[in-house]
Amino acid sequence: MFFYILSTFSHLKLFLYKYFYQRSVSNFAPLLSPLMATYNGYPNRNPSQPPPYLGPGGYDDKGDDNNEGRPQIGGPPPPSRFFKCILCIIIFVILLVVITIVVLFIIFHPSKGTIKLESLSTSDFNLSEKLLSAAWDVNLTFTNPNDKLYLFFETMDVKVQYKHHTIGSGHLQDFKLGFKTQETMPVKVISNSTHFSEHRVDELNWERANRGSIKVDVEIKGRWMVKVPWPIKRSISRHIDVKCKELEVGLGSNSTSGAYTGGSQECV
What domains sit in the chain, N to C, each tagged with a CATH number? Predict the structure, then answer.
C-alpha cells in the first residue's frame, strides 16, 4: 500500500512538473518548488534524464574554473567594521559601569543604621469613658556605622502601641548623621482621645491595679538613605520598620505619669 501511494505521488509530481514548468508559469514556482526537488535538493532540469553527477565536494565537476557549476549560497552580508566597533564600544561601557559599581560597593559597603530606645515616659495619662488622652516622651538614639558615607533618615513616624493597638503617634524631622556618629533624638507622641474597646479598658485597668504598670510597644517607620559619591552619584534607600517591644511603664491606678526603667533597648 505504501509503495502504491509513493508511486502515485511520483506520477503526480511528474505530471505537475511537465504541465507547469514547461509553460514557464512563474507564479506557481514557489508552490511547486518542494515537489520538483530531487536528489540533494536541486531540481532535475530534464525529467527524462537522471540527476547530474555531483563530485566529491557536493558540486558539479563540469563547471568551469570560476565555479559556475557550483550553487550560489545566499544569505545576509557580513556585518560591517563600523557595526562591530559600535558593538564593542557598547559592551565596553556596560562592563565599565558594572565594574565601577562593584568596586564602589566594596570600598564604601553601605550599612543601615541602628535605632535604640533610651527612655520612655508618659504624663497627663487619663482614661475615661473608653477614651485615652496622654503625652509620651520618647528618646531614640540613631547610629551611623558607615565610615565613608553620610546616613539620611527621612519621614520617620513613631507610634506607641498597647497590645498591637496604636494609642499615640508622633513625627520626627528629617536629619543626617555623619561618619561613625550617633545622635539621640527626642520625639513627642500624643494620645488624643484614642478610643478603647471595653475589653481593652478592663485589661488596662487590671494591669495598673495589680502590677502597677502597663506594657507598651514603640514602633518606628520611615526610610534611611545613603548617597554614593562620584562617579555614580546615586542614592541607595531602604525602608525602616522596627519595634521596641514589651516596654514596662510604671503607672499605678491613681497615677497620671510614669516612666520606663528597663534601660536602653535596640529596636528590631
Answer: 1-64 (no CATH), 114-255+257-261 (2.60.40)
